[in-house]
Amino acid sequence: MTEKFQILESKPNKALTYFLMGLIWLVVLMVAYLVFYILYDLFDYGIKNYFLHKTSDLFFNVLVSIALSACCFFLIYTLIFPRNSFFHRVIVNEKGIIIYNYKKEIVKEVLYSDLQPSRQNSFSDVHHRDNAKLTKTTIITHKKNKNETIEEEIIDLYFGYFFIKNRYDLHRHFLLGIQTFRPDLKIYPLTLERYYLTPETKNVKPNIVGTVLIISGFVIVTFGAICVLILFLQWCYK
Length: 238
What we know:
- The chain is of the alpha+beta class.
- The protein contains seven helices and seven strands, in the order βααααββββββααα.
- Strands 1-2-3-4 form a four-stranded antiparallel sheet, with helices on one face. A three-stranded antiparallel sheet has the order 5-6-7.
- β5 and β6 (137-144) form a beta hairpin.
- The longest helix is centred in the first third of the chain and has 32 residues, at 14-45.
- The model has no long low-confidence stretch (mean pLDDT 82).
């Protein structure tokens, strides 16, 4: 190559990450308020009266309070203690894709030189894979394991509530590296089209407006559903 292969590094999506963390904290506060409301009603009516006249309601309220409290503690623990473990730094260069943790240790490394043809001798050696809800996309490659058997190597750039702003660009750059350094490997045609890597679309800028709208809609719907659930449970205890 006459032109040096560029290095692409991940960019954390701080706005979305902090928004989601704030949303989770809001859920924690709302659930905590609901637990307080249930316990207040319990003690205001009197545990003895509940036991004598509303025995089933007493046990139900206690179970709900315990379950909601456990949910709160779990969310708080997830937000405070292991938050550093979600942080990852991703680099795509002329060697392959390298993923670092918050300690700057390499946790995953997929080198172009290690990639192998599919063991099934299928239509492609590299392809993308969407989950059932179409909310997560991974890149599937193949490598040899310690037993010299070829198996799938999945490149997953989803790290809990730590979001990467340029995940699509990292996928595309990695696939471009395969095209550049491993032209012997076959990339699935639909994957090439999706990442604008066909000869006709290489110079076309991808349109990500649709993805942004889908994510925004999902966040709004999720938040609305949580609010409706909290209001419904509060109404049930009136």
